Amino acid sequence: MKEVPQNEKERAIVVGLVTRKIHKRQAEEYLDELTLLADTAGATVVHRIMQERNSVDPALYIGKGKVEQIAQLVEDDDIPSVIFDDDLSPAQVHNLEVAIKRKILDRSGLILQIFARRARSNESRTQVELAQLQYLLPRLTRQWTHLSKQFGGIGTKGPGETQIETDRRMIRQRISHLEKKLEKIGLQRETRRKGRKEFVNVSLVGYTNAGKSTLLNALTDAGAFVENRLFATLDTTTRVAALSPSTKILLSDTVGFIRKLPHHLVASFKGTLEEVVEADILLHVIDVCHPKFEEQIVVVNATLEELGAFNKPTLFVFNKIDLLQDRLHLQELQTRFTPSVLVSAERGINLSGLKETIIKIIHHSFVDLIFSLPHSEQKALSALYDLAEIGEKIYEEGTVRVKAKVSSRNIDQVNDILKRAKATILAS
To answer: Residue 247 burial by CB count (10 A; 0-12/13-18/19+): exposed, middle or buried?
Structure first.
């Protein structure tokens, strides 16, 4: 294996596969995205290899002849890394390393490497390490020769450097420790969330690099890190945003989604993504200039469905309209995707319209309740704090009069509690 000096940008080959299930144009788009991922990880793609086959080769992913071609190419051009656009089995990685004699990465390994570089907070670093170890565990069936030394470059950052001497038992113990650590962090986050019940919670979701962090900064002056690269943001940032003098919300920016996002990465980041699950409203930010933004919408919706957050009140925010040359289809988009709004977060275009639309959704998504409870039903009142925004409380003889704002998704649960507590609904 060839060592890469730390001060040099690593060169790499990306490899994609066209099968009966994936058309050539789609495979080319996947390779475009893989090239961007490689750039984010610190590599320069110098060759793109595409092969057409009926199906994936179980031993080598691609055909033997194509493997021999790549082996000759990396030897002639002195290229240290080959990156494949799909997840490879441990056997495939082993066979490819033997044949090509270079560092072999798959899409999941590359994304994990980017996350390892980008993680800043204690929580995100813990989540990334957990995902890396879960990725590494089934690959301990062989010797990871490319990790036997402290090589530089992509694919060698994180626990892989130190876990080469450990066995499965030790890794499972570490995984268990990290899972317990994330549980504690989750409890702390839940405590903080309960303390913010007076606000409507709104989460920014979307494909990576759609402009979520830029929009957060435009609405809140949060100063969140912004970069024109994939996965610029991993840590959730939450700020108060004033939509009007009388309406404030909590706005959260979360990690962006992407095609073929590793399942174990989604699982590891479920704690962070709880902000999405617990949100009252989602702002689905879309890069309207991207040629495949509609496919990106499908990817985001599928990820939201996996998280159990697909049916939340959602506002489609078509971003970067200032960069769009042909604006004739914008009206048609707003007809197809409702409710929706057109903005430029970077230039501040139509942010007032965005705020007004969010306020309308809040009014339609929440029910104002006034009810009275017997003093003896304090347990019921305590349970309501988890389901509603409890406002003014007036204690009267034998009862307490309560004003509350209830999300439409929680109204049935609230009504059940009030019925069991023999509460009296005074206004709704």
So the answer is: middle
Q: What tokens appear for 54 in the block?
A: 């009926």
For every residue of 250-283, DSSP letters joined together read: EEEE-PPB-TT--HHHHHHTHHHHHHHHT-SEEE
Report d(CA 87, CA 422) in Å as an integer: 56
The CATH homologous superfamily to which domain 196-349 belongs is P-loop containing nucleotide triphosphate hydrolases (3.40.50.300)
Q: What tokens does 42 get?
A: 């610190």
In DSSP terms, 318 is beta-bridged to 286, 342
Measured in whole angstroms, how far is the alpha carbon of residue 409 from the centre of its chain? 23
Q: How far apart are CA 249 and CA 242, in angstroms?
A: 7
- Assign a CATH topology to domain 10-118: Rossmann fold (3.40.50)
Cβ atoms of residues 180 and 221 within 8 Å: no
C-beta of residue 337 within 8 angstroms of C-beta of residue 283? no
Is the pTM above the cut of 0.70?
A: yes
pLDDT digits (tens, 9 = 90+) for 270-283: 666 777 888 889 99
